[in-house]
Amino acid sequence: MKHSISILIPTYNAGKMWRAVLESISIQSIDITNKIILDSGSTDDTIKLANDFGFQILNIKKENFDHGYARQLLADAAHDSDILIYLTQDCILKDATSFRYLVDAFNDEKVGLAYGRQLPHIGAKTLETHARLFNYTPVSRVKTINDKNELGIKTASCSNSYAAYRRTALQEVGGFPSHTIFAEDVIVGGQLLIKDWNIAYVAEAEVYHSHDYTTKEEFKRYFDIGVFHSTNKWLLDEFGTAGGEGLKYLKSELKYVLKNNPSVLPKMLLSIGAKFLGYKLGMMHDKLSVKQRKSFSMHKRYWDKVN
């Protein structure tokens, strides 16, 4: 099946990985109709390099950036494509077949969203490596609304770090929401499932993408996850929680750390505490002052737009 495809990337000072990201896109084995970045005020060579690799450049002010809003602007700019592939600026495609495997998922007419397998970056540290190996398995799967009793909220899980959307499906749910702290991809994923579309996890569509978070950053990230869950309770009402997934993750992480690098056990334990505290505070963020919310959050500009 022939598709018209756009590759869409929000950017801001993309940094040292950017050239490798662009090079990995340039070798893909499928035809790409549009290549577009939406830049929010880069002061490095992000725009120049994107131009060199044939990308169209859209610009917004830094203060106007919003995860859902930015991706909807990109979708609108690629109005002549039926498949929209989103990447983040630090996501490097593993080989020339990555896009092809992802797009092939849409040969199933029920698939409205497909996302690929994220591998740890070359040289990634122990905890970030385990996180990717645990969350992105080597087994592909198509998720339907009927899987929620088994998977809970993870039924809607996906990642716009590397994901593709069928335009008609995205339009059916009203596009990406503006002004969510993050996880606009999970919001759309949940809405697609409710509308009887399916989500494909495509393990063969591999990319390198991981983060070495400090304990402080883990606290902030999980604070934002708590905010996201508390402001999108419909997702938990519809799909439920992740059940015992947290405990399963901790057991797996402990086993991986003891086997591969026991010296990071103290950091692991601190990280667990930071995640727990951050999430609990995020769930009760409405009891905190705006100053406290900003201090605890990874996405500080979100709070400037909260009434």
Supply Rg. Answer: 19 Å
Structural class: alpha/beta
Q: Could you estimate the helical fraction of the residues in percent?
A: 40-55%
Strand content: 15-25%
Q: Largest sheet, if any?
A: 9 strands, mixed
DSSP strand tally = 9
First-residue to last-residue Cα separation: 47 Å
Run of helices and strands: EHEHEHEEHEHEHEHHEHHHHH
**Which stretches are poorly predicted, pLDDT < 50 over at least 5 residues?**
none
> What value does the average pLDDT take?
94
Task: Characterise this structure.
This protein has 307 residues and is an alpha/beta fold. It contains 13 helices and nine strands. It has helices at 18-26, 46-52, 67-77, 98-104, 126-135, 148-151, 167-172, 184-194, 215-231, 233-239, 245-260, 265-283, 290-296, and strands at residues 5-11, 34-39, 56-59, 83-87, 92-93, 111-119, 141-143, 162-166, 198-208. The longest helix is centred in the C-terminal third of the chain and has 19 residues, at 265-283. The chain is globular and about 45 Å long.
Feature tags:
307 residues; alpha/beta; 9-stranded mixed sheet; 9 strands; 43% helix; globular
In short:
The protein is α/β, with parallel strands linked by helices and 307 residues long. It has helices at 18-26, 46-52, 67-77, 98-104, 126-135, 148-151, 167-172, 184-194, 215-231, 233-239, 245-260, 265-283, 290-296, and strands at residues 5-11, 34-39, 56-59, 83-87, 92-93, 111-119, 141-143, 162-166, 198-208.
Walk me through the topology.
Elements: E1 5-11, H1 18-26, E2 34-39, H2 46-52, E3 56-59, H3 67-77, E4 83-87, E5 92-93, H4 98-104, E6 111-119, H5 126-135, E7 141-143, H6 148-151, E8 162-166, H7 167-172, H8 184-194, E9 198-208, H9 215-231, H10 233-239, H11 245-260, H12 265-283, H13 290-296
Parallel strand pairs: 1-2, 1-4, 2-3, 6-9
Antiparallel strand pairs: 4-8, 5-9, 6-8, 7-9
